[in-house]
Amino acid sequence: MKYRRLGKTELNVSVIGLGTWQFGGEWGQQFGQHEVDAILDKGQELGINLIDTAECYGDHLSESFIGNYISRRKREDWIIATKFGHHFHERFTRTDVFGAKEVIQQLDASLKALNTEYIDLYQFHSGPDAVFDNDELWSTLDKQIAAGKIRHLGTSIGSNDNLHQTDASTEVNSQVIQVVYNRLDRVPENRVFPSCERQDLGVLARVPLASGYLSGKYKPGAHFDNTDVRHRHDPESTRLKLQEVEKIKRDEVPEGVNMAQWALAWCLRHPAVSAVIPGCKNPAQVESNASAAELVAER
Question: Could you list the residue ranges that cross the membrane (predicted)?
Fold first, then answer.
């Protein structure tokens, strides 16, 4: 495993992290504690130290699985990132909750679910600019840092071209940007990444395998049933993406190199990117993702 400094947080994160949206049950598989333990144990074995989750991956369900695991392990071995701003109702249904008072309630619920006294990185979760530009919210969060409940703040931008929230990061004490970035979606390179580099912000690239389309497992015409969030994607857009993936595999991926590993390493080649946070459904996928570090140049 290789490690990089997460911007001005000075946290030293593994370049491959563990994305955990899937633990909430919206990616075609229901998880139990045993499955989660096996995934996290494999990650630790391979040198991964970064877990990314959220309050709305299930109703704190993903966090609860992680917290149960952490209660039986060393907390200091992990850098835990979670998010705030949404209330989960049922599969694929959420409402926004960004008021300062409500966010503190979410924070306390996340701390309880994660079975921890502090969160390493607490991220504003894909909210609109109108609620981002709320001084009361950020001053309230700064008080939680002073109280020791949060170590660092970050922003998970909903649009991967949201320059407004990125540019305002230093002003609101947000030190990390999480953004969709992958070989099929390079939009952050134009404006967001230069802003991050100017401000010394850490960057977490989410969806680095383009919702699995860059895993190399799916061909044009692939079908996803209604238990999988991908069934909500526009069918024509999915078909075109998978056609492009076939072309990328043919023209860009070196012979004998696993496409998923190549796609993760591709994201990490950009100087702004600190780490990628791919999802994984089993220990074998964790191992495959972790091996992408072998393709990453040292900095």
Answer: none
